[in-house]
Structure formats: structure tokens, C-alpha cells
Design goal:
Elements lengths: L1 E5 L6 E2 L2 E2 L5 E9 L5 E10 L4 E13 L2 E10 H7 L5 E9 L2 E9 L5 E9 L2
Antiparallel strand pairs: 1-4, 2-3, 4-5, 5-6, 6-7, 7-8, 8-9, 9-10
Length: 124
Amino acid sequence: MGLALQNIGYEAPFILEASPLPMNLKAGIANKSTDSKLTLAVDLNYSILDSIWAVGAGIEYWVHPVLAIRAGYKYNSAINNTLGALAGLTCGVGFKIGILDIDYALVPYGDLGYSHRISIIAKF
């Protein structure tokens, strides 16, 4: 469970012009099953200056000790209204190979096409 207020501070000027920082209020909660194979998560994000809400939910299931499948949906009133309802859908897989975690996610962006996200994390 977590709660965060981001970007509380003064306006940092760029050359001669200052603009307010994008202040956000975030809250989230996640829960793992007793065998740690299944994780469910939900989060809320409120952009204070723009009055935009975003709500997300996700699921992760470890099919095998080295393979996880993931899916999620994030509803953002600014993005989903412009790019369509599928723009908030994500799916992906994760692999654990020794000290490496390799994650892949597919994220549709409506008429803009798809985004492929890959991350590699080394844990020593």
C-alpha cells in the first residue's frame, strides 16, 4: 500500500519563463497470494492542476519459477477519450534467468499503433 504527493515545490524557471510543476496525488495497493504466484494491484493517480483522474489495475501470474504473464488496464480520461478504450490495455511476460529479470510489455495507442517495452534488470 502506498500514497505519494509528487512535485510539491516552487516553479522552476526555464530561461525567463516559469510554469507550475505537474502536481500529482497517487495511491496504490497490491496483494500477493499465499504461494506468491498471483499478484493483484490497483492504483489511482490524480493530476491536481489538470483535474485528470487515472485508474489502473493489473494482474501477474507466475506460470513457472522463470516465467510470468501479466495484463493490466489503465483508464486515463485524457488519453482514453482521445485514443480509444484499448489505449489503456497492456499485456506482457517476464523471465527470470539467474541474476537477470527480462520484462516485455505490449501497449496499444489507438491510431498511433503499438509500443513495445523491454527492460532488463540485474540483481546482485
